[in-house]
Specification:
The longest helix is centred in the middle third of the chain and has 15 residues. Helix content is 33%, strand content 19%. The chain contains six helices and seven strands.
Length: 213
Amino acid sequence: MKQRKHQTIIDHYEACLARHGDSHLGVDWPNKQDAEKRYAVMLNVISEPRAGLTLLDFGCGASHLYDFLRQSRFSDITYYGLDVSPAFYELSRNKYPENTYYCLDVVAEPEKLPKFDYVVMNGVFTEKCDLEFDEMLAYFKQVLRAVFPKVRCGLAFNVMSKAVDWERDDLFHLPLDTLVDFLTKELSRHFVIRNDYGLYEYTVYVYKEPLYG
């Protein structure tokens, strides 16, 4: 079988889990407070939370977003998790057997993923590890092309900002013009870019339909 170029990212996160266990460090977030800020921003892609909505946590890791969701105004939403890593899939499934989880490479098998009202992808595209920028950009586009058709309402993801004092070679700093060109040509013209929450990244909400009007 041909080695997946993004396997290096999977290996990195599994090494973090092995080293730090079920914690924010185990999913490679430097501190818990900033991680929880990201969860809040991700969930705010949902403009009107209500019972019956479905949410896929794509790249769910240890399901820390689910922990946050249960204590928030989004607690009536039905949560699903997906992770390409068997280690994280088993961890989440064992923690929360009441949830449905998928262990799936959506680029290779998009037909196995059903539709959801909302999909959030927290940290899926922030690190590129030893991939070249163009390799990570290609992977980013492949994943979003596969996932967006599975979204009924909206999608959220984050990437590292270019508006920083310096860039790390292992992080995915995505220029806004590159992002907007891709979104408008291939996904949707209805999107919001959030750079208002104090971290060196930005979050994008992409919608199937306009929110207003």
